[in-house]
Design a protein that fits this description.
Number of domains: 1
CATH class: Alpha Beta
Radius of gyration: 16 Å
CATH architecture: 3-Layer(aba) Sandwich
Distance between the termini: 10 Å
Oligomer: single chain
Shape: globular
Order of helices and strands: EHEHEHEHEH
Number of helices: 5
């Protein structure tokens, strides 16, 4: 059965280490016959959540704001797996990824919960200069608990300062293998 996977890439660098992890994961997914849609959040116009509780999950655009989340909502609604890809910024996920996750709340509002449960799964891909992923993983674990999504695991690649530092490292193979395992 062909699965639909969405990658929410919160890296500001299209050729950075997080993007290399996402690329390896995507190659693994495609080799297993599944489809992937990747959103490079740093290049998108996504505004922060206003906390207005004005969303309605049954609308084409469930949020009152009209921005590039309109591209993400239908993909997340239809997917089987959501992959969170981010560099480690100040011991957690990047701002663009957090903003997109906050805005996904609109899929839980109004006419029916289209986000929580529903048999979805998720994975976490992160790259960083250091190795202090604990807070980011705790956030991810808590998020999945709230959403009632299955945790497929994570690939955490520390020791990568400059773009390209990840090349030749075991984490790229781990990301590929995680994608292929779906």
């Amino acid at each position: 059965m062909c699965k639909k996977i969405v990658i929410l890439n919160g890296s500001p660098r299209p050729k950075g280490n997080t993007s290399a992890l996402a690329k390896a994961f995507k190659e693994g997914v495609e080799s297993a016959g599944h489809t992937v849609t990747e959103f490079f959040l740093g290049a998108m116009d996504i505004h922060g959540c206003k906390g207005c509780f004005g969303g309605h999950s049954s609308r084409d655009c469930p949020c009152v704001q009209q921005d590039d989340m309109m591209q993400i909502y239908p993909a997340v609604k239809a997917c089987d797996v959501v992959v969170l890809a981010s560099p480690l910024y100040y011991w957690t996920i990047s701002g663009p990824l957090k903003t997109a996750l906050d805005r996904l709340f609109a899929l839980e509002e109004g006419d029916g919960n289209l986000l929580r449960g529903n048999g979805k799964s998720a994975a976490l891909l992160m790259a960083a200069e250091g190795h202090g992923f604990g807070d980011a993983v705790a956030y991810y674990d808590h998020l999945l608990e709230h959403l009632r999504w299955k945790n497929l695991g994570h690939v955490l690649a520390g020791g990568n300062m400059d773009a390209g530092d990840i090349q030749g490292k075991v984490e790229l193979q781990q990301a590929y293998d995680l994608g292929k395992s779906l």
